[in-house]
Amino acid sequence: MYRLLALLTAAALLIAPALAQAQELALKRVMLSSGGLGYFELEAEVQGDTTLKLTVPLDQVDDVLKSLVVYDDKSGVGGLSLPGREPLAQTFKDLPLDQAALQRPELLLQSLVGAQVAVGGGRALNGRIVSVRGEATTLPDGRGTIQRTRVTLMTDAGLQQFILEDAESVAFVDPVLRERVAQALAAIQSNRVKDARTLDLSTRGQGRRTVRVAYIVESPVWKASYRLTLAGDPAAQRAGLQGWATVENLSGRDWTDVELTLVSGRPVAFRQALYNAYYVERPNVPVEVAGRLLPNVDRGGVAAAALPAPAPPPLAPPPGQCSQERDRAAATLGHAAREPTLKLAEAADQVEATDAATQVTLKFPRPVTVANGGTLSIPVIDRQIPTQRIALFQHDSAQRNPLAAVRLSNDGDTGLPPGILTIYERDRAGAVTYVGDARLSAFPVGETRMLAYALDEKIVIEREMASAERIASGTIVGGVLRYATLVRQITTFRVRGPAKEPRTLIATQPRHAGWRLARPDSTGVEINEGAYRVPFQLTGGAATQTFEIVQERTVHQEFRLLDADRNQIAFFARNAEFDPKVRNALQRVTQLQGAVSEAQDRIKQIEAERAGIVQEQGRLRENLSRVPAGSDLHKRYLATLDRQETELEQIGKRRVEAEKVVETA
Predict the structure, then answer these.
(1) For 419-423, 454-458, 622-626, which range has the lowest pLDDT when averaged over its residues?
(2) CATH topology assigned to domain 2-218
(3) Which H or E run contains 618?
(4) Which residues contact 237 (CB under 8 A, 6 or more apart)?
């Protein structure tokens, strides 16, 4: 059995010399982006026409196909080829056997029943395979059984059998079948790392030269972390800042003496499944029979003379331009043109920091070596930075105490990437103590950051909120009173500061849209993510100090005076914030409203008197009909009716006068 496997493996090696001509690329440069991308540049010394081999993990093939670029200053790029996504499946697709058949010789022979084989050894045979079956054979002296494989062949002499395990060699007589089995074995050998693919890059040229290949793939985000050491004196204005970069190599290959560059930025990046096969859906059309035609529909045409002349093809780049293009390859990660650089200390070396338009680039001066799967942490920054200690009150974080914080100012030549920051404090004797952690966001040149790292229990704050409103102004136009109301939100801070040291307290207060800061003065106040940062100075001593933050807005309203209530207008007429002319006009309106009201009351009284008389007259007329004419009672009723008619005439005159008063008012 093992002799058969050796024979098949030797056959697979027949195609190995062709593969040996390919040349491996060596990794030289790595650029990692905090956006989760990695730029990898490899190179090889070649001569003449050469095929370069590049092996990448399967999950990186899409990115490689999207971004791979070849730089060959003295020749041209021939092309790229690689196995399909399922190369073994394609290899075995047209074979009369599957991959499982190559796991054991008996399975291989069983899958090729009918093939002609030549058996070598003490009993040479030549024939076609009829059957392959296993059988148990008892060992001598009853020591157990072993499994043997009996193969039946159709030979010129008829059916003959042999035991596969006893044969010295079994060879396929058909050379085409031998080659195909050998190719299948070679495919298995080349695909032994199932999660990797090997790309063949061909270059065309003459002479010895350096060929560079670069691509961009998904990579772990490199992390920046910082250490800030505060001086023992709280009034010290500078502190020591160290920055470190943590890098993981999960690229699938070792980094040996590579040029490493780190980029902090957020480039726009896409991925596309270029390594998948896609098919275009086609419409189904009816099967055509003789005599039936289905021509395309004519949509009209344009005269050829009216078409514009085709654009000329692009000019080939002059010699040497490829190297210039390679220098621009780093721009794939957003690497902009060179800006003024800053040398940052890294032990005895210098890390070159470049501040570009959208990112910060850190280039290490010496090659680095990181094994695949390894992690590397390297110092990149070591300098003094302007620092101010403050107390930062954020009610959402702590309701009664502010946070101990430091305000950092970036007075360097480059920005700093975001990262976590560990804060130490050095006392006057030089001993160092850990005091807390903070988070540093992206830190451009010229900006400041407030980093809170602990609770400051030496300061106690009581916070109260209240609101108030008052009328600020008003005008009357066309019988409409338009007035403005000033609404205020007042936040009062009662602060008991440290007993022995002054503090700068920064109080944060949510900033309401449409409101303005009325108190304190906006000098020194910052706006940060929808909140005011208001500074207050705490004097040394345990006395309680009171501060206020007042926000206000103006609300405009209006109403028609004729529709307003007298008491409502009287309220506005008493408002001292109105112009005297407006107040006088409102007072006159209240007077006129009073006159109208009095006149309307008189009209109601007159109407009541008139109704009473009319009702009495009805009673008298009814009584007149019941008494004798000319009697004293009859005469009395008539006199009363005459007097009431006179009163009704006077009531009518009084009503007309009252209505005139109402109309006039």
Answers:
(1) 622-626
(2) SH3 type barrels. (2.30.30)
(3) helix 580-624
(4) 386, 387, 388
